[in-house]
Amino acid sequence: MELTYLDSNSWLLDFNGCRILLDPWLVGPLVFGNSPWLFKGTRPIERPIPGDIDVILLSQGLPDHAHPPTLEQLGRSLPVVGSAGAAKVARGLGYEEVVALSQRQIYTWGDRLQIQAFPGSPIGPTTVENAYVISDLQAGTSLYYEPHGNHSSLLKDLPPIDVAIAPLVNLELPLVGPFIKGKESALELVQWIKPQYILPTAAGGDVNFEGLLVSILKASGTPEEFQDCLRERQLQTDVINPVPWTATTLSLARSMESKSS
């Protein structure tokens, strides 16, 4: 399994040649609600959009996960799998094959990949976006992804998952509290799914942020502190802090047969 962190929430996942572009924000600014004074993200260095993509996977319909300017640059024949909100964005941009996954539903790409949706982050009072477990059906390996630290207790019923991508730090707003929950929720996640590796997402990369929200955001925790926390509890998961835009190859010890035995 090869993972490349593309800054912010964006990842390129390579499962033995099957390539998933996950929550891509790769071109142009990141703005919510046409309000750059409130929040604006920019990239100091222009980066190429990865090629040879097989599937686009979107966890949420918000611009930092389903980023319209980036999606406009990709081929409309690529299959898009996402939450209901993300699927609506993709359809609006003219994508031809869009699959909206409800929680516990499964999408299968040929005989190579299985993507199962789980409850993820609540957005507003009625909407819950998606987390995913991605399984390589040939190698027998698996990966879990949720970008805001909202992990469903349904995961406790699954066999161990090899790799997790989740926040390891908290980002908090005054009077609101953490909207990205890393520290405690990531520890609980590790205890539930027992991954060999966990990689941080959501709070890093080569990006610049400005605006009112950024000026009052408070971050707490580091990947190094989280690794120390795991060791104190004698948990064997290794924290990998990826170098943005540099592929990380993971050698995984388990197989699907050993998980089911």
From TrEMBL:
<dbReference type="Pfam" id="PF13483">
    <property type="entry name" value="Lactamase_B_3"/>
</dbReference>
<dbReference type="InterPro" id="IPR036866">
    <property type="entry name" value="RibonucZ/Hydroxyglut_hydro"/>
</dbReference>
<protein>
    <submittedName>
        <fullName>MBL fold metallo-hydrolase</fullName>
    </submittedName>
</protein>
